Every structure is written in C-alpha cells, then in structure tokens.
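pipeline stage [seq->struct] | target=Trafficking protein particle complex subunit | organism=Lachnellula occidentalis | residues=311
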Amino acid sequence: MAHQRVPSTIDAVKEPHSVSLKVLRLSRPSLSIQHPLPPSPSPSPDLTASLAYPSSKPDAFILSPLLTLPPAFGSAYVGETFSCTLCANNEILPGTTPQKTISNVRIEAEMKIPSSAIPTSLPLSPPSSPDENEDEKDAGVDLDASESLQKIVNFDLKEEGSHVLAVTVTYTETTATSGRIRTFRKLYQFICKGCMVVRTKAGPLPPSSSSSLRKWALEAQLENCGEDTICLDGVVLETRDGFRSVGLNGEERPVLMPGDVRQVCFLVEEVDGGGKEEGGRIVFGVLSIGWRGTMGNRGFLSTGALGAKVT
C-alpha cells in the first residue's frame, strides 16, 4: 500500500511567503538635464521632442523643471546619511482560500561595515505608536489583507568601502487549523565612496614680541572627489583646551564642482599655558567640514587629530 509522503522542511521553505519586502532609498531628487536641438531654418523634427519637459513655452536651458530620482540606490558618499524606507506588505488578496491571517509582523535591520565583522543593529522609525513599550515592540503588528508596515532606517556613513544592509522580516501565519512563525532575510549591498579629500599642513609662526606663546598656521586643501557639485556650508577648526583658532577664509560659501580644490587657512594660538605634547607632537584639534548638495542634501566630515611636530 502506497504511503503519502510527509512534506519535508525543505518543501516548507520553498513555499512562497505571504509577506513581501520592498526597500527604497530616500534621496533628494535632482533637476533633469536636457539637450535641446538648436533652431534650424530647414525642415526638422519638432524641437520640443528634445526637451525633457515639453511645454507651450519651451525653454532651451540645459536644466529643466522636471525632477529626477536617482537610479537604484544611487551614489553613497562618506559624510552623508544613508536613509531607506522598509515596507513589509501583506500579499494575501481578500477572498483567498484557504483563509490566512498575518500577525506579529516585525522588521529588523542591520548594517555591515568594512571595519567590523559584527553587524550594527539599526533603530527604526517611526514607532508603531507613540507610547509603545519594549514588550509591544516585540509583539509586532497585525496586517490585514493588502496592508503594509513601513519603517525608516537612517545610518551615518563614516568610511569607504562595501556596506551591506540586512533586513529581516518575521511574522505569524495562521489558518483555520494551524499556525506557524515564518521569517526571511534580504541583503542589499552598496559601495560608499569618498566625497571630500582633505590635505593639511601646519607650520610654526614667529612669536610676537609681547608674548612667548607659540603660533602656527594650519593650511588645508579640500578637494571634491565626488560626482556631484557641492557647496561648502562651513569649515571649522575645533581646538582642544589650551588653543584657540581664527579662520582666515571669509564668510563666503564656495561652490566646488567635481575635481575642484578649495584652500583654507587657520591661525592657531596657545592660550592658558598651551596644550600638552603627545609623542613629540602637539595636537590642536580636528577640522569639521559641512557641505550641501545641489538639492540641499547635507554632508559632514570630521578629520583625525591635527597638529604639528615639536621642534
């Protein structure tokens, strides 16, 4: 007598999930670039066909009013905040048989960075409710047919190299006769590149006749090595105790095209007895650089400890 084969664990894993996951990077759009055809007296195709945004009053300017989102994940740069929306969708259609109930849906996210073998757990926002406690967070959210659970994750990019966003979705699938906990995990890899190259040089200055406190000139070259135009929002030398700095760069906010270099300079002076020497060097502080992209997206970079050799 033939026996009915009992479904194996592998068969259960192959069964399609009732919940799907969609991940979309949150990025500011950019103005679409168009290449309009020049006017020609001879018969030619309609000039509006070459415009990204055809209108009754065509404008031949290279930038159009049309906004464009970056393809896929786009470019990620050190100093920026990487943001994504994570959406878990109940894919069960109303009236589907056998009837299934989806409950306790939870989303967890981790980021794997090049300098650490241990993934970093990422907080998700917004919470399911403003007053939820830890037990309510662990309980998850119930989703009716075609409903979704959406979360936003933010991560400050601080180093170059390959990053992996790992998203895990866990939910309970219940039918009239049984119930089970199901889970799946998806990985999203992207490359983080450097946007700003900083080169510094510090040199001593002769002390004034009225004081024995030392002075230095700290120069820095800021190079835009990214693919987008940026506007420097601020360059500040954050000094340690025993020093003060004066910027010699004016109040303007320069615009750096890809490959452009900006030179900045600071006068560093000792105060209150000066700073401490560390390994034959005297450390002034760190250089903090802020910038904005073409559509206002912010970036921030802080250098390592800057100083000069003690002679």
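stage status: PASS
auto-comment: The chain has three domains: 14-27+71-193, 30-68, 196-309. Confidence is low (pLDDT under 50) at residues 1-5.
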